[in-house]
Amino acid sequence: MSLESRLLTALIPQRHARAWRIAYSGGLDSCVLLHLLARLTRAQPLPPISAIHVHHGLQSGADAWADHCRETCRALGVPLEVARVRVAASASLENAAREARYAAFETRLGDGEVLLTAQHRDDQAETLLFRLLRGAGLKGLAAMSPTRALGRGLLLRPLLGVGRGELEAWARAEGLSWVEDPSNASLDYSRNYLRHQIIPAFEQRWPAAVPAIARAAGHLAEAQGLLDELAELDLASAATPSPFAWLELPSLALEPLRALSDARQRNALRQWLRPHVQLPDADHWAGWCDLRDAAADAAPVWRLDQAELRRAGERLWLLDGAWLKTPPEPSVSNLHGEIELVGNGRVRITGAGGDALRLGYRQGGEWLQLAGRGRRDLKRVLNERGIPGFVRPRLPLLLRRNEVVAVANLGDLTGSGIFLDWSPPTGDGRLS
User: Fold this and answer.
1) 303: which strand partners?
2) Looking at the predicted structure, is the pLDDT value of residue 183 above 90?
3) Each residue of 247-305: pLDDT tens digit?
4) How many helices (H) does the chain have, and how many strands (E)?
5) Quick one: 139 and 273 in the same domain?
6) What is the pLDDT of residues 357-384, one digit of tens each?
């Protein structure tokens, strides 16, 4: 089957996309993809195509590369956008450039649009080897997926089944010209070392090494897919509604997880944590065991990347952002309308008079006169209601000296007719 036919077959699921955007670096791989797509769209009713060239500004020839891309796209009649990015200082220039590049793609991808990138089979093999040497888990060893969500659209890699040699042969047969990034020859970069030193040595002993390694990545991706399905099944039994509907934080019931093997617990938690935090490495999972096995009256914490997993009773709660900081004591003179609490969401008071009431947080020693039950310590009331320990220091109170007149979101406990409706913070945006 010709290269054009294989590309078209890979693109069939996206034939009705609003647009195809080509990630065009000017190098060999993206040059072939651009020319193939330009040819296909002239011959068939396909989505409109355009190209995006990311100008990193890291090489002295970067401006000339952008000019080359403009000339090529002009000759093909393909609209081109040159996106200039700033690459952050980082220990890994490769990673920083990649992050800047994909951030540029993401912001430019519209609803229903598809970004087409030119990674191929040799790239897939390099990715698996690179991640293997870093001790990646199964998801990392599955290497690059053929498709994934990106911003408001989709990223598609239609050439993953094609070797670099075939792309180069096609380009030379068509008389194409492309730019060569001199950094691609530097062995200081790990991927280049694999590409120029390790993989050729493999191929000398095993000529089919690259297709075999790429095929293994496909098998690992399938296995990861099965584990993801198992995780969703396991999480379904733990994702019971929280008893505190107003506490809009990710949470799970602990008991269904305890019933699983250790490996299935980790698998389910990885699936649950993945959208929110950088997953812990293998050694760090001891923190999960400590949290899970702590005494019933303990308040264990598993500290993750810019987040914490807390246990309150038999439930797990994931906290980040404002929840990891102690809010300052409210300084509010007007108790009417919706009141913004610094670092602690918003509260609205209804039914309150103006008799020396103030907003505050628990300091210790507070008490309240329960309707029909007499005087009770606030701590005892919160225990009875099962309020999680991490909520208590920031739970808004309406106070008259040391007497609690109302407690946020617990109704009218004192019979005063006063209610506090509190909308807690939801984190820094990742957990909202």
Assistant:
1) 308
2) no
3) 999 999 999 999 999 999 999 999 999 999 988 888 899 999 999 999 988 889 999 98
4) 14, 18
5) no
6) 889 999 988 999 898 788 889 999 999 9
Residue 222 identity: E
Task: Count CB neighbours of 384 within 10 A.
Answer: 9
115 marked as part of a ligand binding site: no
Instruction: Report CA 305 to chain centroid distance, whole Å.
Output: 13
Residue 320 marked as a ligand binder = no
169 shares a domain with 147: yes
* φ, ψ at 406 (rounded to 5°): -155, 150
> Does residue 18 sit in the same domain as residue 142?
yes
Q: Token pair of 369, please?
A: 């006169």
Tell me whether residue 332 is in a domain: no
- Helical H segments across 48-180, by residue range: 62-76, 93-108, 121-133, 138-141, 164-173
- The annotation status of 27 as a binding-site residue, yes or no, is yes
Residue 113 included in any domain: yes
Same domain, yes or no: 215 and 273? no
Question: What backbone phi and psi angles, to 5 degrees, belong to 28?
Answer: -55, -55
Please tell me whether residues 397 and 291 are part of one structural domain. Answer: no
Report yes or no on 231 lying in a domain. no
Question: Which uninterrupted H or E stretch holds 7?
Answer: helix 3-11
CA distance 10 to 297: 56
25: buried, middle or exposed (CB in 10 Å: 19+, 13-18, 0-12)? buried
User: Taking each helix axis from N to C terminus, what angle separates 28-43 and 62-76, rounded to the nearest 10 degrees?
Assistant: 20
User: Where residue 115 sits, what CATH number does that domain have?
Assistant: 3.40.50.620
Domain that holds residue 189: 3-219
At 353 the pLDDT is: 65
Tell whether residue 427 is among the known ligand binding residues: no
Q: Which residue's structure tokens are 């997926």? A: 145
CATH code, domain carrying 252: 1.20.59.20
Q: Are strands 301-304 and 403-407 parallel, antiparallel or unpaired?
A: unpaired
280 and 345 share one domain:
no
The residue with tokens 């077959």 is: 9
29 is in an annotated binding site: yes
What are residue 51's DSSP bridge partners? 22, 80
Residues 252 and 204 grouped into a single domain: no
Amino acid at 331: S
Q: Look up residue 369 and give its DSSP letter.
A: E
Domain count, the chain: 3
23 strand-pairing partners: 52
Q: Which residues does 332 contact at the CB level (< 8 Å), separation at least 6?
A: 339, 358, 359
CB of 166 closer than 8 Å to CB of 125: no
Is residue 397 in some structural domain? yes
Separation of alpha carbons 17 and 37, rounded Å: 14
Claim to verify: residue 175 and residue 149 sit in the same structural domain: yes
